[in-house]
Amino acid sequence: MTNYQLVLDYIVEAVRPQFGKGKVADYIPALAGVPPRKFGIAVCTMDGQIFKAGDADEGFSVQSISKLFVLQLVMQHFGNMIWTRVGKEPSGDRFNSMLRLEQEQGIPRNPFINPGALVILDLLQSLKGDAYQRIRNYLRFLSMNETLDSNPTVADSEFNHAHVNRALAHLMKGYGNIHGDVEALMEIYCFQCAMEMSCVELAIAGLPLAGGGYSRPHETAVISKSQAKRINSVMLTCGMYDSVGSFAYRVGLPAKSGVGGGILAVAPEKLTVCTWGPELDAYGNSYVGTAALEMFTEMTHTSIS
Length: 305
Ligand code: GLN
What we know:
With about 300 residues, the chain is α+β, with helices and mostly antiparallel strands. It has helices at about 5-15, 65-80, 100-105, 115-125, 130-145, 150-160, 165-175, 180-195, 200-205, 205-210, 225-240, 245-250, 285-300; strands at about 25, 40-45, 50-55, 60, 195, 215, 220, 255, 260-265, 270-275, 280.
């Protein structure tokens, strides 16, 4: 039996030399002030046991990790038709790149780059009812924290600087792949990205992906087995943007990152592990978090291969 607590306590110390090598995201001004040398790590096993170390209980901006959960909501409602509006191939470009979007007539490569997430959100917004509430309620349910919320300062800050995301949305609207109003879409996208969760909450929220849709703490099948398989697969090939290959080589697990510095990784039928370290590498993924996950999977022999 692996002593996860011992491993996490070791990692919190062992990653220290990695501090200062990455850079906190500053293109969303409200994120620039986050203390750079925070580090947290949490593991949630299939039976719902939680192990944690460092700043694992501190809430941070989930940013693109939210794409993982909004995708679940949309798959639950729309099923396989979503793949007519978004692809499932790695893009090889930056998460907010516009390059391929014009070449490929407004169909984003996958749901985890920004244009893909905007299309997914456009689908959610087309449903009757309040999309904000739907996202917040789903995250509250998954994290088992009824007080979870979006940080309005971060959401406003991104909304006021979201020129590239607006451009992506307008380009797709021009090609007919965004149906709703672009400004309304941007508002809810910034709200979704500014949700604040801790490593522990994200590890719990990811559990259905590890359990073939079922999660013991939630006492239900949150998504279907097939949906869990599909989402994990797209995470493995597209979840870490244009460094997905080297991340897979180093860590060996499907994972989703956010520019808030979080990474949520899934070991199917075993556990979830979430790290938070705000300093990012050149691809927008947590520098320290990636190093910590590599240590974790090497030490515990947890990987899909
Ligand atoms: N809100 C961020 C953006 O749209 C999310 C990007 C990310 O976390 N990779 O730029």
